[in-house]
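Re: the request from the purification team.
They wanted to know what the chain is likely to look like in 3D before they choose a buffer screen. I agreed to run a prediction and write the result into the notebook, where they can find it.
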Amino acid sequence: MKKYLAIFALAFIVTTAFVIPQQNERTEASEHPRIKKAIHEMEDAIDYMEKAPHDFGGHKADAIRDTKAAIKSLKLALEYRAKVDNKK
């Protein structure tokens, strides 16, 4: 019985550790729709550039790299807000 209780407790902790932050990030994205939209638009632009047959005058690789960095920064900003708002 103790073994099953320990397994249940561990499963609960692991699930909580992954699900709650994701829910908070989704909540933050819904509270900041312009950021959510910007991320979506940049992901679409990356997809477009990656499939494009030309290199945009030699700027394609840099543009893709910089856009991915911008997406990462915006997601980190939402994660930060989720953590700060969760503490209140």
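For the purification team: The mean pLDDT is 82.
Please add any questions underneath this entry.
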